[in-house]
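Exam revision sheet. Question 4 asks you to relate a sequence to its structure. Input first:
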Amino acid sequence: MEKLHSKKEVHALVAQAGIRQYFSTPDLQFFACRYKKGEIITAPDQKLDTILFVIEGTVRIFGIRPDGTTSPVNQQTPPVILGDIEFSQQGTRPFFTQATTDVLCIGLPVKPYEKELHRDLRFLHALLHSYAEKLQFFAFVDAPAETLEERVLLYLKNFCPNHEFTGIEMAVSRLRCSRRQLQRVLQKLCTNGTIQKVGKGHYKLVGSFSPESQ
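Answer key, structure tokens:
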């Protein structure tokens, strides 16, 4: 991890990323830091007393099962909040976070503002949304589905806003399959009228298969 020392650059990044919209508390002092691809950002054995906003790059959030296998929670692109679970559990984190590309973060140390943050409804709402999104996807990963086709439909019905997604690479990561496997399933579902291709890498659930029509 490498911190950026230019206050002017940090202020510009905070403004550009719209970080202050997550807070009602004034006069917060942020910092910025970079993580290299492959670097572990958070881990269960490392107490985190900082709120991190990933503003550039992609991170992978995962757990370790008792048998040693990994349980992916999500691979996320900006905006991503890290430290949401730790804030609610006083620093304890059940998941690892790893940079899958070079990553740029805006950070806020919790201790100097702890009392204010516990009363900041805008901040707490943002944390709740972030926390819920992680838990929702964790439930999706462990949901029973025998085939990739079933997983794609489950993903579209229950986890995609408006029952559509854009971006094959992100879907590949979340569905834990190869690009070729996913494209084959998407083509089949388009052919039988279950989903519709709206644009490049953009698919949506249609017709009687969409929850709105049921």
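Marking note for examiners. The chain has seven helices and twelve strands.
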